[in-house]
Amino acid sequence: MVHPKKKKTSLLEFEEDIxxxxxxxxxxxxxVGRGCLAGPVVAACVLLPWWEVFEGVDDSKKLTSAQREKxxxxxxxxxxxxxxxxxxxxxxxxxxxxxxxxxAMRMAVESMQIRPDFLLVDGNRPxxxxxxxxxxxxxxxxxxxxxxxxxxxxxxxxxxxxAALISQFPGFRFDIHKGYGTKKHWEELERHGPTxxxxxxxxxxxxxxxxxxxxxxxxxxxxx
Length: 224
What we know:
By secondary structure, the chain is an alpha/beta fold. It has 2 domains: about 15-165, Nucleotidyltransferase, domain 5 (2-Layer Sandwich), CATH 3.30.420.10; about 170-220, no CATH class. Helix content is about 40%, strand content about 15%. The chain is built from 8 helices and 5 strands. Strands 3-2-1-4-5 form a 5-stranded mixed β-sheet.
């Protein structure tokens, strides 16, 4: 495991270090949606050509939506291979978010058209049930180009999925808050209750909807 205090001066230093050990197909893995109240957790695995320059690729959290949308097709078109893993809210509730995140990462790697021979994984844990050598990198999306690219692919993919849900759940602005616990999202939960894509095992999701139901009942009886 690599700690962020171990300063890297280039987003390709991790890849270069691993390549010197004899590995060739070095891919980055990252996920988004871990802390959301609704929707899936989405992971991406990206294998980039090491000799090409990918301007604008950085930790997805540091980029605006427009910047992510601009570099997303560049990554998709120029990557040797990429894979996506998606675990929905129901499975998250069943297995917990930690296991669901690792499953999404594993699915992303397994869906690759080219099998990586080494994985750089964002976070402090390796992907379980994988035989491919790997290195967890804390804050890897800010330290590794491959992980940063994976973070962008995962983020743009999930954002598009969430935005498409507003027609199915018109009481929730998933196109704006993407399922994260914003003030507006909590207000929507109180007003409408959880939907089929809400993570009911997450703290407060059911409680807020019960509070909203009680508040509406009191209003119906003339109390405010």
